[in-house]
Amino acid sequence: MLQCRILGGLVHENSLLGFENVGSQCCRIGFFQKIHKRGPVHRPIVLKDLSFSLPHKTCFEGFSTIISPGDRIAVIGRNGSGKSSLLRLLQEQCSGIPLAFVPQERGEGDTLSGGEGSLGVLARVFKSHPSILLLDEPTNHLDRKNRESLRLMLKAYRGTLVVATHDRELLQWNFPILWPIEGGAITVFRGQYEDFQREHSRRYLALTRQKTEWDREKKSLHGDRMREQERISKSRSAGKKKIARKRWTKSAGDLKAMRAEKSQNSRLREMKEKGQALSAQLRELRLPEEIVPRFGLLHRKTADRTLVSVVDGAIGYAGKAPILSGLHFSVAARERWALIGCNGSGKTTLLRAILGDLTVKRQGHWHILPARQEMGFLDQHYRNLEANQTAMEVIAQAQPSWGPAAIRQHLNAFLFRKNEEVGTPVHALSGGEKARLSLAQISANPPKLLILDEITNNLDRETRDHVRDILRAMPAALIVVSHEEQFLEEIEVEATYQLA
């Protein structure tokens, strides 16, 4: 349970941002015209013994800190560590303060792109002049120009900012306070993200060395105890033999045995106490758990032929002008394509057209060889997952021939390991966990054509890097939408199709 105590009231001063000429369609965030130097101010907020648990794990507990006016805080941690839950708890508990919370998923209808939905929400949030701004993965879906506009907006914002993110570029935007969530605890790190990375690496290396040393010492101690017990046993046996041969009298032998036993018990007791102390030290070491993704994405072999061909194509929605026209492209087996363009350019609509979505009206000549069930699709909002289904049920539906053991083994590779994890409903999963489950769903039915819409959204660093390696090695045909230029370079796309 979270406990939040707020000291004092609020002092409302000059408004933060002035907005002018905000159109109904926000194609760019950078529409604000003037920024006041000061914004609404709140008194310090004291958080005491902050805790949050799920049925299968404790995300964090016992966290206490003070949030001062104007603090800029980045919350970081692995997928499912509790970052989004922390922001929601702050929103619930910090009542009485003008506060705005922008969650991870913020789409605004089927006809808006993910970036457009994000822009609309962020525009209204900044216009409301909040004293505290909570943002969960704010750069998701944003193209390069809108990311830059967001950066300028956050730079101008004078209120208190708390951001949960995996975005390494965003973390370089001057967050002098970091709240890393790791090992069921939140710590406070004062310094920039690069400083944290260096300190984290140094600390992890030191802890690893300490654990190795203590493990070696404990193993050596165990061997010493075994040898000491064997020596004691031999000593007692030798004493009995000497008494039997009358080299010792029984009384002298008993006295020697008593002295030896006392000394031996003392040594054994010292060894036992030292072993218990080492065990306690190892438990308290709190070495961060290194969870390494090991899943793969299988694919169906296809002949060297064209899988998708569009000539003089156009797409749009009923009753509206076409979104795109003059489309000419083809994708062959084992080719990897990147579909790029700014927010609202029609990338996701084009993917829906390829997938045969009936809400998208197609014109021109379209030849799509794989059937829908032979195409794997990761939706940027994870709408391929039913909110009330568990991870087990999602895979069972995708692959009805598998039994529970096979399903659990499959999910285990995608880091769903415990009973509670495979039994958690989709709506209770973090964004990164939904992304992993979507990949598990695709891999249960290996596709001929893999279509990925903003796959890096919400993924932590370890999972993102693993996905990169998988895609780079996978020979199946691939169409990927991403605003992350570095990721597209890393997976070695062979061609790009630019939408204006």
List keywords for this structure.
500 residues; alpha/beta; seven-stranded mixed beta sheet; five-stranded parallel beta sheet; 22 strands; globular; disordered N terminus
The helix tally amounts to 12
DSSP strand tally: 22
Low-confidence stretches: 1-38
Largest sheet: number of strands, sense, barrel closure: 7 strands, mixed
Shape category: globular
Our estimate of the beta-strand percent is 15-25%
Rg: 30 Å
Mean pLDDT: 80
Distance between the termini: 49 Å
Structural class from helices and strands?
alpha/beta
- Helicity, as a percent range: 25-40%
Description:
By secondary structure, this protein is an alpha/beta fold. The strands form 6 sheets. Strands 8, 9, 10, 11, 12, 13 and 14 form a 7-stranded mixed sheet that branches. It has a 5-stranded parallel sheet with strand order 19-20-21-17-22, with helices on both faces. A 3-stranded antiparallel sheet has the order 1-6-7, covered by helices on one side. α7 runs parallel beside α10. It is globular.
Secondary structure topology:
Blueprint: E1 4-6, E2 10-11, E3 17-19, E4 32-35, E5 41-42, E6 45-54, E7 57-67, E8 72-77, H1 83-93, E9 99-102, H2 114-127, E10 132-136, H3 144-156, E11 160-164, E12 177-182, E13 185-186, E14 189-190, H4 193-244, H5 250-284, E15 306-316, E16 324-332, E17 336-341, H6 347-354, E18 361-368, E19 375-378, H7 391-398, H8 404-413, H9 419-422, H10 431-444, E20 449-453, H11 461-473, E21 477-481, H12 485-490, E22 495-499
Parallel strand pairs: 8-11, 8-12, 9-10, 10-11, 17-21, 17-22, 19-20, 20-21
Antiparallel strand pairs: 1-6, 2-5, 3-4, 6-7, 12-13, 12-14, 15-16, 15-18
